[in-house]
């Protein structure tokens, strides 16, 4: 298969909400359990639905807030998307992924009005070295699963707890549909939690994330995602993975993932 997902059908309801039914391919397979989807492509498919949903030229996505409600099963699932706060300058959209009658991801997205603010433009996050001259990082394949097998990683600057890793892949998000740059890159952001792990395999503690928060001060461009990542573990069972998000043109946003630290075995 040359895509993460296959679309079964997409239905527009009388109230404007959209229900899309999909089936996952092996390329979505997660790293913690072989029968679940990785959160990275699951984020991407939600963003693909946002691309289709009531498109407007005067607004763009500024924030995506995703809560992981449980295991994300492989196989057939659906995403229902609707507006829960309409508006001319700000609009809040809710997307719920469910499988087998149970919700597994709840996502809320702010779409925000765009305008020319070049007079006050300014960034503090610096540009980092791109992937072109960096070696392929094969160690990422110590993580199992079809999703990790689908991506290419490059780095020359990482250690336990901190580093910069560049990612790309050659797959479409949905078979037969064009994958936008936003969908391509959002579909890899969740990988941040596995690239600067504070432990050496075999892990003493699992550290799955319960959410993924993404804030975008501009839309990303291209097919390379740079994750400038810091992972921190508290002493009472909770951790945090934070990343500055880069494309080949510089920083474009940030992500945060709250972690539940669980003794393995």
Folded structure, characterized:
Residues 131-259 form the Acyl-CoA thioesterase-like C-terminal domain. It comes from Acinetobacter shaoyimingii. InterPro entries: ACOT8-like_C, Acyl-CoA_hotdog, HotDog_dom_sf, TesB_ACOT8-like_N. It holds the Pfam family 4HBT_3. This protein is mostly beta strands. It has one domain (3-114, 128-263): Porin, CATH 2.40.160.210. It is built from 3 helices and 15 strands. The strands form 2 sheets. It has a 13-stranded mixed sheet with strand order 7-8-12-13-14-11-3-6-5-4-2-1-9. The chain has a two-stranded antiparallel ribbon with strand order 10-15. The mean pLDDT is 97.
- Give the end-to-end Cα distance, rounded to a whole number of Å: 35 Å
Number of domains: 1
Q: CATH topology, which one?
A: Porin
What is the CATH class designation? Mainly Beta
Protein name: Thioesterase family protein
Pfam families: 4HBT_3 (PF13622), 4HBT_3C (PF20789)
How would you summarize this macromolecular structure in one to three sentences?
By secondary structure, this protein is mainly beta.
Element layout with pairings:
Elements: E1 3-12, E2 18-24, H1 39-52, E3 59-68, E4 76-85, E5 90-99, E6 102-113, H2 146-150, E7 151-159, E8 162-169, E9 172-174, H3 181-186, E10 205-206, E11 211-216, E12 225-233, E13 238-247, E14 250-260, E15 262-263
Parallel strand pairs: 1-9
Antiparallel strand pairs: 1-2, 2-4, 3-6, 3-11, 4-5, 5-6, 7-8, 8-12, 10-15, 11-14, 12-13, 13-14
């Amino acid at each position: 298969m040359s895509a993460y997902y296959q679309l079964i059908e997409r239905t527009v309801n009388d109230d404007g909400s959209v229900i899309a039914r999909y089936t996952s391919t092996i390329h979505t397979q997660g790293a913690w359990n072989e029968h679940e989807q990785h959160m990275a492509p699951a984020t991407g498919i939600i963003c693909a639905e946002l691309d289709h949903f009531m498109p407007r030229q005067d607004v763009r996505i500024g924030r995506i807030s995703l809560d992981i409600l449980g295991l994300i099963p492989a196989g057939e699932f659906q995403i229902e998307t609707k507006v829960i706060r309409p508006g001319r300058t700000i609009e809040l959209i809710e997307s719920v992924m469910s499988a087998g009658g149970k919700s597994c991801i709840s996502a809320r997205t702010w779409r925000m009005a765009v305008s020319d603010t070049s007079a006050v433009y300014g960034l503090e996050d610096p540009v980092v070295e791109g992937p072109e001259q960096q070696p392929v990082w094969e160690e990422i394949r110590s993580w199992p699963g079809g999703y990790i097998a689908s991506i290419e990683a490059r780095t020359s600057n990482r250690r336990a707890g901190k580093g910069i890793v560049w990612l790309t892949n050659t797959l479409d998000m949905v078979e037969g549909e064009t994958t936008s740059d936003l969908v391509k890159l959002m579909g890899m952001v969740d990988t941040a939690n596995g690239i600067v792990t504070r432990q050496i395999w075999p892990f003493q503690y699992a550290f799955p994330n319960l959410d993924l928060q993404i804030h975008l001060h501009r839309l990303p461009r291209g097919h390379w995602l740079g994750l400038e990542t810091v992972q921190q573990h508290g002493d009472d069972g909770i951790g945090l993975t934070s990343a500055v998000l880069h494309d080949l043109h510089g920083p474009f946003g940030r992500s945060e993932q709250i972690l539940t630290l669980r003794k393995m075995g």
